[in-house]
Amino acid sequence: MGGPVIGVLALQGDVREHVAALTGVGADVRTVRRPAELDAVDGLVIPGGESTTMSKLVDIFALRAPIDKRIADGMPVYGSCAGMIMLATEVLDGRPDQRGFAGIAMTVRRNAFGRQVDSFEAPVEITGVDGGPFHAVFIRAPWVERVDAGVEVLGRVTGGPAVDRIVAVRQGNLLATSFHPELTGDLRLHRYFADLVEAAR
């Protein structure tokens, strides 16, 4: 068997950057826009973008039920920024009609770090990722306000007004970060996810 086949949900957001990062760690990468394309992957990345738009497009492209089923069946999924929002069981400050996949038992506050002009970069230590702090890029990012038992907190903000806010979590085969590792050239989180997908195959 070859390496894991990892899909990137290609409806909206920074799809190209995730494809490049996953390719860089040796994954066989496919873009996913249709249920048949989802069937062909071992794991899925939900990229950063605009979570309310993504929620609508998931329904338009008839992907909600298939993704829900694959998550329930144990498919590894990694969500960055908007992808984190899409994986949360509860979203604060979202639109009333906004729906995600409710995979990770957590409450996420949408745009918690502020507007586009409030974007920033900061070091974040990630449990399970060696090599020192991760250079994290936050763009209109959410943060996690609460997690249930069974959700592992992997990273928190280490300084500034948002100190100690949760920005990286894992629950089983589901991984989420508030920030955008695909924009940094640091491939460690993508390697972490690819290893998770490989272990789940």
TrEMBL record:
Gene Ontology biological process terms, A to Z: L-glutamine catabolic process; pyridoxal phosphate biosynthetic process; pyridoxine metabolic process
Sample GO molecular function, one term: pyridoxal 5'-phosphate synthase (glutamine hydrolysing) activity
Keyword Ribonucleoprotein tagged: no
Residue positions of the active site: C81 (nucleophile), H180 (charge relay system), E182 (charge relay system)
Record-linked InterPro entries: Class_I_gatase-like (IPR029062), PdxT/SNO (IPR002161), PdxT/SNO_CS (IPR021196)
PANTHER family named among the record's database cross-references: PYRIDOXAL 5'-PHOSPHATE SYNTHASE SUBUNIT SNO, PYRIDOXAL 5'-PHOSPHATE SYNTHASE SUBUNIT SNO1-RELATED
Role: Catalyzes the hydrolysis of glutamine to glutamate and ammonia as part of the biosynthesis of pyridoxal 5'-phosphate. The resulting ammonia molecule is channeled to the active site of PdxS.
Name used for this protein in its record: Pyridoxal 5'-phosphate synthase subunit PdxT
